[in-house]
Each structure stands twice: as C-alpha cells, then as structure tokens.
C-alpha cells in the first residue's frame, strides 16, 4: 500500500515529468470508473489545454494545480488507495497494465494513473480549491514537510485509549503514516505496538518521532536506488512481490530479528491490519532492561 514515501516519490516524479507541459488529451478507461467517483470521465475533458503548474503532497494525497488556457486554475486530487501509482511513458511505449487514466502531454509523452484494485481516487477540483475539501482540511501537519511536534503528539495521544500502533495511523495526527511506517517506526524506537498510546513518555515519543522519520527517509532511499525516484523506472510496492522486501520487520514474520538476533519477528492483527514487531526488543521487559542500563551508566 502506498504510504508517505511512495506518494512523495510520485509527487517528485510528476514534477519532473509534467511541470510546464500542456495537456493534449485525457482518456479514462471505463473499467476504472470507480476511481472517478463521484465524477465521470466527461469531467476530465476540462483538463485538455491546461498547463501543469505545481504538484504538492499532503500525507498520502497528491494535489496537482494546472493553469487553464484562458486564465484561472484547475486542480486534480489524486489518492493512490491501495495499489495506485503514477507512471510515465514515451511516445510509442506500451500502456501500463491496469492503466485507468491517461494524460497525453504536448511533448509526446504520456502520464498514466494505474490502479489494479481501484481503491484510489482521481477528481478534478474547480479552482484548485483543495483546502475546501474535508479530506484535506482534516489532515494534521505533514511529518516529512513539517516535522513531528512531540508535544502535540503527546497531547493528542494522552486522550486516546488506543494501542500506539493504531493511534499513530490516524491521518489527522500523522498524515501519511500507515501500516508499514508505523510498524517500522515503532521497531526503530523499541516500542511495543500493543502498548496504550497514552502510557508513552515524552522521551519515548521523541524516539518514536525519530524512528518514523528515519524509516521514511530509508524507504525513500530504496526507491532512489531502484530508479523509481529520479530515473523513470516504474515503482513497485513490496506487496506486489516484484522486489526484495527492504523493511526491517514489516512482512517478515518468522524471520530473525535484525537487531537482537535472538527472537523472531511476530505478526499480529490490530484494527484489522497486520502488525510486525520483535517480542524481545519491543517488550516492556526490554524497556526495563534499557532503563536499568541508563541508571547504571548515569
């Protein structure tokens, strides 16, 4: 599933491919009509002749601004859902599999929104009025663009009874953080994903903030190395099993913990989502051991 790093790569690629280019034609595959809800393929015609001006990312949302031929602005809101991705093709190259929307540019190239499972969204937004959209207005500060305010995090988590893994996937709290980054960030911070969110100290939340940001940057680095960020290679998601799993614990049940080398990674289900963690490194007993070491070293 695309999370903050994958959507950030999509935003960077769209800027490289499209900024300054005009839309020559737009086509939608009728089999992908679900992603256009509540609009229709006819609504996309207004994009013809418009010029790409800006691409922003908020959490897992892509906010694309275009200039209309006779003045004014248009917007496109793109949410990648579970399997969505933006791809680029040169003239004569084959249309990607599961392509749902095709945007032909004035330089002969084309942009393709591909989505196998059709949980994504693609909608024209009049006047690029993104902030009037409830989905956008509700988002909290973006972890990558704005950083993670530990005091705000502590204040919000003090009011919930949820486990920490479930709590940090709230998009009004940490937009862009979802199943993968939550599991990875908690592992890096040595925090048990089952712990009550309100039980974490400020120091622990500071470690979690660092762990989440380190995981985001690490994930983006893997996309740079694969060529998906900056070299026009198609992006692959780990769930597609086309690439080796780059993550420390996510998707690795039964594997030896990469840190302690003693326990094996466990998979549990929280709020209908899979969670992966090390029962030794991320246990309350492990926390006690670390505090004992801190006291002795102090």
Structure description:
This protein is α+β, with helices and mostly antiparallel strands. Helices cover 29% and strands 21% of the residues. The protein has helices at 4-18, 134-137, 143-146, 150-157, 164-167, 179-189, 202-226, 284-297, and strands at residues 23-28, 51-58, 61-67, 73-79, 84-89, 99-105, 110-115, 121-126, 266-270, 273-277. The strands form three sheets. A four-stranded antiparallel β-sheet has the order 1-6-7-5, covered by helices on one side. Strands 2-3-4-8 form a four-stranded antiparallel β-sheet, covered by helices on one side. β6 and β7 (110-115) form a beta hairpin. α1 packs across α7 (202-226) and α6 packs across α7. The longest helix has 25 residues, at 202-226. The chain is globular.
Summarize it:
This protein has 298 residues and is an alpha+beta fold.
Q: Which keywords apply here?
A:
298 residues, alpha+beta, four-stranded antiparallel beta sheet, 10 strands, 8 helices, 21% strand, globular, 29% helix
Structural class: alpha+beta
Mean pLDDT, to the nearest integer, reads 94
Q: How would you characterize the largest beta sheet?
A: 4 strands, antiparallel
In spatial order, strands of the major sheet run 1-6-7-5
What's the gyration radius in Å?
A: 21 Å
Provide the fold topology.
Elements: H1 4-18, E1 23-28, E2 51-58, E3 61-67, E4 73-79, E5 84-89, E6 99-105, E7 110-115, E8 121-126, H2 134-137, H3 143-146, H4 150-157, H5 164-167, H6 179-189, H7 202-226, E9 266-270, E10 273-277, H8 284-297
Antiparallel strand pairs: 1-6, 2-3, 3-4, 4-8, 5-7, 6-7, 9-10
């Amino acid at each position: 599933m695309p999370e903050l790093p994958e959507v950030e790569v999509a935003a960077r690629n769209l800027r490289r491919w499209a900024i300054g280019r005009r839309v020559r034609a737009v086509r939608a595959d009728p089999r992908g009509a679900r992603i256009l809800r509540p609009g229709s393929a006819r609504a996309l015609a207004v994009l013809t002749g418009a010029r790409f001006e800006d691409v922003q990312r908020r959490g897992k949302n892509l906010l694309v601004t275009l200039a209309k031929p006779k003045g004014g602005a248009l917007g496109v809101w793109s949410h990648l859902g579970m399997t969505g991705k933006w791809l680029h093709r040169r003239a004569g190259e084959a249309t990607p599999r599961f392509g749902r929307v095709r945007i032909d540019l004035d330089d002969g190239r084309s942009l393709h929104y591909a989505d196998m499972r059709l949980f994504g969204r693609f909608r024209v937004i009049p006047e690029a009025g993104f902030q009037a959209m409830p989905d956008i207005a509700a988002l909290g500060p973006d972890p990558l663009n704005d950083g993670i305010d530990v005091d705000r995090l502590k204040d919000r988590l003090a009011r919930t009874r949820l486990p920490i893994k479930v709590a940090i996937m709230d998009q009004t709290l940490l937009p862009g953080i979802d199943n993968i980054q939550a599991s990875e960030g908690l592992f890096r911070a040595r925090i048990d994903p089952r712990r009550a969110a309100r039980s974490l100290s400020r120091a622990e939340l500071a470690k979690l903030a660092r762990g989440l940001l380190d995981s985001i940057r690490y994930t983006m680095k893997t996309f740079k190395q694969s060529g998906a960020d900056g070299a026009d290679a198609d992006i692959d998601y780990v769930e597609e099993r086309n690439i080796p799993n780059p993550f420390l614990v996510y998707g690795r049940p039964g594997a030896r913990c990469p840190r302690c080398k003693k326990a094996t990674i466990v998979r549990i289900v929280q709020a209908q989502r899979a969670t992966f963690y090390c029962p030794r490194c991320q246990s309350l007993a492990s926390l006690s051991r670390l505090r004992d070491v801190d006291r002795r070293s102090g």
